[in-house]
Amino acid sequence: MTLINHLTTTLRDDKGMSTVEYAMGSLAAAALAAVLYGVINAPAVVSAIEGIITDALSSAP
């Protein structure tokens, strides 16, 4: 096998692609989780959630 044929075969090989796809998916999920964590911990969101819970607990059925 010549060097050109070997390089062509090696570069066209899809082995390991699913691993890269899982890694990219995991990275995207972690980034989304970090953004959502930041939004949920914002003071305006925390006070809004506390207000909703307080209203729900104080109202009589």
From TrEMBL:
The name under which this protein is listed is DUF4244 domain-containing protein
* Chain segments annotated as transmembrane: 20-40
Pfam families, alphabetically?
DUF4244
Which InterPro entries does this UniProt record tie to the protein? DUF4244 (IPR025338)
**Keywords linked to the UniProt accession:** Membrane, Transmembrane, Transmembrane helix
Natural source organism: Corynebacterium pollutisoli
